[in-house]
Amino acid sequence: MVRMGKENFGKALQHSHAREMDFTGKPLTGFVYIEAEGIAEDEDLQYWVKKVWITSLRYPPRASNLPPFICLAGTLRHRGGFENNNI
Question: Residue 56: exposed, middle, or buried by beta-carbon count in 10 A (0-12, 13-18, 19+)?
Fold first, then answer.
């Protein structure tokens, strides 16, 4: 499952092996489920990791119960890091 945000949701769904996230039967807008085949190759996995990382930089940091890299990304962004998203 990846969080793509509302602005990238439709584009993410165009990829093969991607579908709406719907654990409860109600789609979660902005979240996409990637089937195992969609990340089986290193290039595919790297693509999705990069997209999720860039998306996480667009959201403000939250409480410290989030994984450290997400909190760090938010902190760095608000301190002027990652200006051009070249990851």
Answer: buried
Q: Tell whether the model's pLDDT for residue 14 goes beyond 90.
A: yes
Q: Is the pLDDT of residue 81 over 50?
A: no
Q: Where are the domains of the chain?
A: 2-78
Convert the chain into a string of H (helix), E (strand) and C (coil): CEECCHHHHHHHHCCCCEEECCCCCCCCCCEEEECHHHHCCHHHHHHHHHHHHHHHHCCCCCCCCCCHHHHHHHHHHHCCCCCCCCC
pTM passes above 0.70: no
CB 44 within 8 A of CB 50: no
